[in-house]
Amino acid sequence: MKKNLSILAIVALFFGCTNKTKTHQPLQNELLAYTYKFEKIQNNQRYLAIATYLNPILKDQNQNEIFILSSYPKEEEILINSIKVNGDSNVDVSKLKNDDEILNFINIKLPWSNHYKITAPQKNSDYLEITYKTNLSTLAKLKFQKVSKSMHWSPKIKFESK
C-alpha cells in the first residue's frame, strides 16, 4: 500500500509541476521563416550577423523593403556606406537602441550586439540580398526569399504521358 501511494505521489508531483499553458505565437513563427544569419570565424575571432525581413508582417504602405540586422561583436561595426540591397546603395540605415520598440518584432534579440534598421525601395525580385563590409574587413552577405521557404511546395511526383 505504501509503495502504491509513493508511486502515486511521484506521478502527481510530476504532472503537477509541468507547465500546461502553451502559447502559440504565429507572428514569431512567421518571422522565423524570414530570418537568416551570416557567420565568419577567422583566427579565433567570430563575427555573427542575424537579419529579419519584416515586410511579411508589417505590410508597409510605402512598399519599402524593411530589415532588422543584428551584428556581433559590437567592436566590429558595420560600415554604413557599404550597405547594399540587391546591389543598390540607395538605402536608409538607422542604428537602434536595445530598447527600441521595433526590436519586439524579431525572434532573436542579441543584447550584446549592434542593431540596425535597413529600409530600401521596393525590389521587383524573388530574392533580396543584403551586402556590407565591417571595420575589420568582413564582407557579409545575407540572402532572403520574399516568399518564405515554408510557402513553397514542390512535389516529388513524376507524371508519365500515355
From TrEMBL:
<protein>
    <recommendedName>
        <fullName>Lipoprotein</fullName>
    </recommendedName>
</protein>
